[in-house]
Amino acid sequence: MINFANPEYLFGLLLVPVIILGYALLRFFRTRKIAKIGDENLVRQLMPSYSRTKGWVKVVLFSIGLLFFFLGAARPQIGAKLSKHEAKGAEIIIALDVSNSMLAQDYSPTRLERAKLAISRLVDNLREDRIGLIVFAGTSFVQLPITTDYVSAKMFLNTISTTSVPIQGTAIGEAIYTAIKAFSSQSSKSRAIIIITDGENHEDDAVKVAKEAADMGIRVFTIGVGTPKGSLIQLADGGFIKDEDDNPVVTKLDEKLLLDIAATGNGAYIHATNTEFGLGPIVDEIAKMDAEEFSSVVFEEYDEQYMYFLAVSLVFFVTAFLIGSRRNKKKLF
After folding, report:
1. Alpha-carbon distance 11 to 306, whole Å?
2. Do the Cβ atoms of 158 and 72 come closer than 8 Å?
3. How far, in Å, CA of 162 to CA of 165, rounded?
4. Which H or E run includes 291?
């Protein structure tokens, strides 16, 4: 598999067809001008040393050289080997509420999108900690197993929506239980669960499950998304979610439940705002926990190939430079 360390230079490849097309148009208009001056065959006889073929040869060689130059500038890399990577940090599992109430727009653009943006920024700042993602509504499942692959974490994060979980509702307790099972066998003390939700739990006893997690040495933090006065849930078509009596549903933040879960889970509760979502302070608190050593197998040490591409481009550039525009006076036969 070929990997490009600087893929932005690949846009330079667009110059290759532009140069060839530009030269073809230049030759076309030049021929038209000659035709206006006089007979084309007569003009050729007046310039016997001029070579039409060499002009094309020079342009083609230069274009090929340019192609290899930009490929080399993009730093192609091939191959990789498996290497054991040792890291020291904590294991953090984020449980994200994807129920329809997270579509409320009291956060810009919605509660869910604001939460995803905050998680993405958190991932950008992680170094040695391992992270996992859980999505939940009426049920829950692991979206991303615990990992240090932050690139994959952001990719999986981008795919999350309110349709990620088919069963609607808000089962916070089940989400905590799923997170407990998702921790790796290497972790025994530096484990934390961060629940991001509006707190409208309708399914189970989340406080009881948080107590079980705390008894296992797992700290449970909660982030409340929403406002106590509530907000309507707007749909993509501009309408609003309504209840059985055809009244618009107002989703309100249940801070008391989230405070109880955090207190029982030996964690902390933070009310998210548009300016400070709350993940930063929680991660700072997690950093105070005793770090654990983790080992994982990762791909590393790509073999650089750019020097070969640049060498080939140099050969084509030099060859194009050495070719003149006149015909050879001496013939081989």
Report:
1. 16
2. no
3. 7
4. none
pLDDT for res 85: 62
Bridge partners, residue 1, by sequence: none
Torsion over CA of 138, 143, 147 and 152, rounded to 10 degrees?
A: -150
Please provide residue 129's backbone torsions phi and psi, each rounded to the nearest 5 degrees. Answer: -70, 150
pLDDT digits (tens, 9 = 90+) for 96-149: 999 888 888 888 888 999 999 999 999 998 888 889 999 999 899 999 999 888
Strands 303-304 and 76-78: antiparallel
Residues forming a β-bridge with 218? 191
d(CA 80, CA 94): 31
d(CA 198, CA 230) in angstroms, rounded, equals: 10
Answer for the pair 224, 123: CB distance below 8 angstroms, yes or no.
no
Can you give the pLDDT at residue 332? 42
CA dist., res. 134 & res. 94, Å (int): 6
Beta bridge partners of 322: none
| Structure-token pair, residue 125 | 């700042």
Other C-beta atoms lying within 10 Å of the C-beta of residue 25 = 10
**How many residues in the chain?**
333
Dihedral sign (CA 177, 122, 96, 269): positive
∠ at Cα 322 (317, 323), nearest 5°?
Answer: 100
Residue with tokens 């294991």: 91
Closest CA to 266 of 297, 243, 289, 293: 289
CA-based end-to-end distance of the chain:
48
Q: How far apart are CA 253 and CA 229, in angstroms?
A: 8
pLDDT tens-digit series, residues 217-237:
999 999 999 887 878 877 666
Distance CA 78, CA 302 (A): 6
Q: What is the mean pLDDT of the chain?
A: 84
| Helical (H) or strand (E) element with 69 | helix 52-73
Name the one residue in this structure whose structure tokens are 């990789």.
80
- Locate 234 and state its tokens: 């707007």
Amino acid in the structure at residue 320: A
User: What stretches in the chain show pLDDT beneath 70?
Assistant: 1, 34, 37-51, 79-87, 186-188, 201-202, 235-238, 243, 292-302, 324-333
